[in-house]
Each structure stands twice: as structure tokens, then as C-alpha cells.
Design brief:
The complex is a heterodimer of chains A (131) and B (264). With 131 residues, chain A is mainly alpha-helical. Chain A has seven helices and two strands; from the N terminus they run ααααββααα. Chain A has helices at 4-18, 20-28, 39-44, 51-72, 96-99, 103-114, 120-123; strands spanning 76-78, 84-86. Chain A starts with a helix and ends in an 8-residue tail after the last helix. Chain B is an alpha+beta fold and 264 residues long. The chains are: A mainly alpha (131), B alpha+beta (264).
Amino acid sequence: MNDKKKIITGLAIFLFLFTLPIWYNLVSATSAPEPELSAKAKAAKTCVRSKEYMVAEHMQLLDVWRDTVVRTGERTYTNPDGKQFNMSLSTGENSCIGCHVSKADFCDKCHNYASVNPYCWDCHIDPKEKK
Amino acid sequence: MKSSRRNFLKIAGVSAVGLSAKPVLDAFATADADEHAATATPEKASNKKALTGKRWALVINTHKLQTKEALEPIIEACNKLHNVPHIENERWEIKWIWGEEFKHAFPGKEDTFLPEHVKHNPFLVLCNHCENPPCVRACPTKATFQRDDGIVLMDFHRCIGCRFCMAACPYGSRSFNFRDPRQFITEQNPDFPTRSKGVVEKCNFCAERLAVGKQPACVEASGGALIFGNVDDPASEVRKVLNKNFTIRRKQGLGTGPMVFYIV
């Protein structure tokens, strides 16, 4: 056991390098971006469901919506408060993008931060990016 | 640890107690879930204005559509509404509704002494929304399916682009997006999605318009040459038209039950 020092320094360096991503993130991490609400969305105060629900479950909600609309043709959504909504991502004023008018400020900000790439807009048209 | 009979019995006893606690925990868990479900039950329903029918059908009065020019506004209305790309190269073209010569539209029905107008005029062809659609049977992902009202619809989200449906369709009503269609759409309609590269597409009988109580776009643009309605209802206009006129259908012998009728 004459090489105790060397082994321990080697181990320490290895551990540091191995956990470097963690340290890097701790130092450089910025806080998660907040989606920016449009004036229209702010005026409406609540979305289809509560804010907490939408933050956590919007992907499930959209998934259920698209299946329901395409498969059953049902397009009206009544939330637990009894308010009715048109189930659509991008059809005119009465849709998600009709209220959250800026895809860049509302969707992309968090999606880019979290590195998720939903393919909604491969087909659905964001009216703002119209050529 | 040296295992002994005594130790084994101890462990077995404790395990038995632990297992007996599980149902109690389960009961708590479900009670929790029930409570959650009771407070939040959103409902989904179809639009009140929506047109409903048991079997949608289209009658095309070809006497009123004699020339290529007569078909154009109808085709244009559909293409604009549904963001159908216009691609010059025939290998990649996308078609929802288009004009076809009699001999191609109705193979088997052509004859030596057909009237000139039948021989040479273009016939408007589109997806026949078959009663027994072979494309639906061929689709491995159920992206293509038949609705209760008879419309053969596509769920573009689900299409994997295998093109079995194109092989199965005897009418060539389906097109495959070999290229990204967006670059070929001159005027985008933001209210209807485009498709992406690698999916099949076809006419949807304007399901999105029926849902808000409107007639299909082609019918609206045809000025009375196209009649759309529920053939299951004897009082409907389509049935009246079908009762008064002799009509033919495309490749009826295949047993697909096409729902597009032609007055010739």
C-alpha cells in the first residue's frame, strides 16, 4: 500500500470528471423559462383547465383531444366548471393557438429548454409563420 | 447468518403480516383515485350544428360538368381548403379530387359506340367512401378507419406511410407524400393542417365542415352539379335524385360499395 496517495488522487480526479455534467449544470443552469402569456390569454384568466393541470397534463389533454376529434368527431369540450371549448389546436380564433397567439413565446420557450420536440407543427400551421 | 427452523418461521410470519396489509393499502389507493375522478369529469360532445347521417353519399351530375373548365373551380375549392399541394411532377402529385377520362374512371363500362361526350369529357373522381373499404382492412395501424356515418377517414397522426392502403384502393384515390408538401402549397389555409412527408392522404368528405354544419366544399363550389346527403334517409335529396336518375358507380363489381354515384 505504498501508492495510497496516487490512488486516492486518481480516484478523486476520476470522480470529478465522471460527475462533471452534474457540477456543470449546477453552476451554469438558468431557471426554467416561463411561458409568456399573450394579452388575450391574460384577459381570459383561465385556460381550458386550471393552470396547474395545464402545466402538468397539457400533452395528455392534447393527445386525448386529437384522438377524440378525429376518431369520434366530437369537438366540444366541457370542462369541470361547465364552460365549453372547441377542441382544436390550430383552427382559427377558437383554438389553442387562437388564444396563445405566439408559438415562439408560449410553446417553444419551454420545449426548447426541456429539449422536447413535439411534431405538432410539422402539419398544423402556426398562422404567424405564414410565408 | 445460520438459518434455523426458528429463523425461517420468524421471517415467514412477518412476511404473512406484510402481505395481509396490501389489500388495505389498495383500498386506500382506489378511494383516493375515485375522489379525484369525481371532482374532474370533463365531457366531450359533438357540435350541435353538425350534420349527421348514417351513410353519406355524393351524386355527381355529369351533364352539368362537361368540360375541364367546369371541374376546375370544384377541384380548386377542395385543394385550397385542405392545403393540397400542387406538384408538377406526376410521380409525386397529390390528388384528392380530380378529372379522369371515362375509360379510366369506369374500366369495363367502356364500349365501342359510346356517345362522344361520355368518351372524351373528364369525370370528377374522388375517394368513394366505400361501404366495405379495402383500404381500412389493409391499414396495419388503423390510421384509416370508417366512421359510423360511413366516411372513410384518415388519422394522419397515426399513418406510418406503409402505403398498403394505396395498393388496396381500386380507385387510386390515395396519394403518398414523397416530398414535404409545404413547399408546394402556394396559399396556406391556416385552419386546416398540411400533411408531412411520409404519410398517405385522400379526400375526407369534408368531415371538418360537416362537423360545423356545412356541406362539403366541392358541393358548395359545384353550383348544384354535386348533391350530397344521407342515402339511408328515404326523404333526403340524394335519394330523390337517385330515384329519378339512372346512375352508375365505379368498379361496382369489386363489392366495395362505392358511395359516389354518377348521372351519365
